[in-house]
Design goal:
The protein is α/β, with parallel strands linked by helices. It is 36% helix and 23% strand. Helix 14 packs antiparallel against helix 20 and helix 16 packs parallel to helix 20. The chain binds 6-O-phosphono-alpha-D-glucopyranose.
Length: 611
């Protein structure tokens, strides 16, 4: 969470930083701020979104060819002007932005209070900054050295970037745990939390590693470790186009990303699946096939929507590969003392590749000898880099805070991985394998058909937009789809929604049912279909309103459901990739009808880089 941008070079820094902050707003939007250096330090910050900062600085002095900017997702201290970044050190010499959490800030703060420091915010960032200042003043060293000494005492995660009033030709940055990309231009450098603020200026980037300090001038980049030894920057070429991070005519990124799914699922299959020859080509799986097919157990760790993808995979892998699977919330897994044996495989699923809990969970499992297989969307991200093997989801940048296209891409990759393991292991017949390959091949086309009914989904959704609660029910492969539908509605429309296994509903949620409660049943044709029809009867008998997601041609529910949404027929293993799409649309349309900011729902952030 929190987005950071910085610039040094020949351009005016403010427009570069402002545009960058807008691109990074998905990471947090509680407040925003910039600091510019030009004959002195100028600091502007504002509670709220970047647009509010922009308005508030009209007519102010925004000159400067070096500057830092920040968009915040609050951790320490409420969203407010005074807690907004950048922060200024006590003597007014240094300005700093920070993404992450300084865990031992209370102890450091006490030490500084004892020395007479006063604080103007509630943030851990201001503590770290004054801690750096204190070291700089007492040891009479340069800022770079002060940062190095300070970071040796810091517990936690951070990316920090500092401006020094007396050295207007240098930015100092450092990273541990949170992401930092440096774009290398001609006589200029761009710093950001991800590549999106950088791509229109340069495609050459360096991903800074943990425990590295960067000393950046307009025409020079020096990387050092905390031991003050120079590191060789590894320059990579960005494979990202500007169009991919713009709205392309859609009202919202979320809608654009929902409608991209025929393409993203196709991109995910491209070069991997050859249905005609019955082959799956995945280097990451092939190179570790012995470990994967002989795994004693697969543990899937993830958070949020990615965790739901993991739940679908649990059903798929157990069915096809006959390997026991456990799906864990990364945040729980990392703090337990999980039993991990050699021969266990951990699959980490993450859109951003930066989710702090997932990252730490796999670091721990790796130390204990597990093989880590990463399923990640953002190329070059931390989880991708520490995994032993993996597969990218190739969904392109996902900017809407609620995950949509990344989820369906995760399901496609997981299905491919499961099928590849199953065929190598011999736990699937050739016929079933070929059938499922054909089914996967048809996914992009079927998703397109679902999107063709978006207007009908909208009309249906709007009938229920004033409901206070929703229930989402499904069985088997459709149970995680119900969970994901409920999560989407909560995130985007702020309506309370619960996802539940349809049969388990009798043990609690059924008490909520009355004529005001919409119940969304994910009731596509599968092995549980008869059972779910009975569950629908149970809801109708209690006057609940039923919105049933059914397979084309299924007449069973005619006259029973209040509303139906139809999806094309698909094998039950593949169906979740298609069935989730109308549920994404329901939440989008209700959110928009309520006048909410669907791309940036309150309190959420896309990339949760704090625990
Ligand atoms: C945040 C996002 C969710 C996402 C979750 C996990 O909560 O708002 O959309 O599913 O993090 O993120 P990851 O990047 O690890 O998939």
């Amino acid at each position: 969470m929190c987005g950071i941008v910085a610039y040094i070079g020949q351009r005016q820094a403010y427009p570069v930083i402002l545009k960058g902050l807008k691109r990074l707003e998905y990471r947090g939007y509680d407040s925003a701020g910039v600091a510019l250096l030009n004959h002195g330090l100028k600091l502007y910050k504002k509670k709220g979104k970047v647009a509010e900062l922009e308005e508030s600085v009209v007519g102010k002095d925004l000159q400067g060819q070096i500057g830092i900017g920040h968009t915040r997702w609050a951790t320490h201290g409420e969203p407010s002007d005074r807690n907004a970044h950048p922060h200024l050190s006590a003597n007014g010499k240094f300005a700093m932005i920070h993404n992450g959490i300084i865990e031992n800030y209370a102890q450091l703060k006490q030490e500084l209070l004892n020395k007479g420091y006063k604080f103007h915010s509630d943030t851990d960032t201001e503590v770290l900054l004054n801690f750096i200042e204190d070291i700089q003043v007492n040891n009479q060293v340069g800022l770079e050295e002060a940062v190095r000494i300070a970071l040796k005492r810091v517990v936690g995660a951070y990316v920090i970037v500092l401006l020094d009033k007396d050295h207007p030709d240098t930015l100092i940055a450092a990273r541990k745990g949170s992401p930092l990309v440096i774009g290398i231009g001609k006589g200029e450098h761009f710093l950001a939390s991800d590549a999106s603020p950088i791509i229109e200026y340069t495609k050459e980037v360096v991903y800074v590693n943990d425990y590295e300090i960067a000393i950046i001038k307009a025409d020079e980049l020096i990387l050092k470790n905390l031991g003050n030894e120079k590191q060789t920057p590894f320059i990579q070429k960005l494979d990202l186009e500007l169009a991919a991070i713009e709205k392309g005519g859609f009202d919202h990124f979320m809608l654009k990303e929902i409608f991209e799914q025929p393409l993203t699922t196709y991109d995910c299959l491209r070069g991997r699946l050859d249905a005609t020859f019955g082959t799956i080509t995945m280097g990451g799986v092939q190179n570790h096939i012995e470990q994967l097919k002989n795994a004693n157990r697969i543990i899937i760790v993830a958070c949020g929507t990615s965790w739901h993808a993991g739940l679908v995979a649990e059903y798929v892998i157990e069915e096809l590969c006959r390997i026991p699977v456990e799906v864990e919330y990364a945040s729980e897994f990392r703090y337990r003392n999980p039993v991990i044996h050699k021969g266990d495989v951990i699959i980490a699923i993450s859109q951003s590749g930066e989710t702090a809990d997932t990252l730490v969970a796999i670091e721990k499992a790796k130390e204990q000898g597990a093989v880590i297989f990463g399923i990640v969307n953002v190329v070059g991200s931390s989880i991708a880099r520490i995994s032993n093997a993996g597969a990218y989801t190739h969904a392109g940048p996902e900017i809407g805070v609620a995950s949509t296209k990344a989820f369906t891409a995760q399901l496609v990759v997981l299905a491919l991985v499961a099928l590849k393991i199953a065929i190598e292991k011999g736990t699937i017949t050739r016929d079933r394998y070929q059938h499922l390959l054909n089914e996967l091949n048809d996914v992009p086309e079927k998703v397109k058909l679902v999107l063709g009914q978006a207007d009908h989904v909208r009309e249906t959704a709007l009938k229920y937009k004033d409901a206070k609660d929703f229930l989402y029910l499904g069985r088997g492969y459709n149970f995680p789809v119900a969970l994901e539908g409920a999560l989407k509605l909560k995130e985007i429309s702020y309506i309370h929604a619960e996802g539940y296994p349809a049969a388990e509903m009798k043990h609690g949620p059924i008490a909520l049912v009355d004529e005001t409660l919409p119940v969304v049943f994910v009731a596509t044709k599968d092995s549980y279909h008869q059972k779910i029809v009975s569950n629908i009867q149970e809801i109708k008998a209690r006057k609940g309103k039923v919105i049933a997601l059914i397979t084309e041609g299924d007449e069973t529910l005619t006259g029973l459901a209040d509303d139906v949404l139809i999806v094309p027929e698909a094998d039950e293993i593949i169906a979740p990739i298609i069935s989730v799409v109308p549920l994404q649309l329901i939440s989008y349309y209700i959110g928009v009808a309520k006048g909410l900011d669907v791309d940036k729902p309150r309190n959420l952030a896309k990339s949760v880089t704090v625990e």
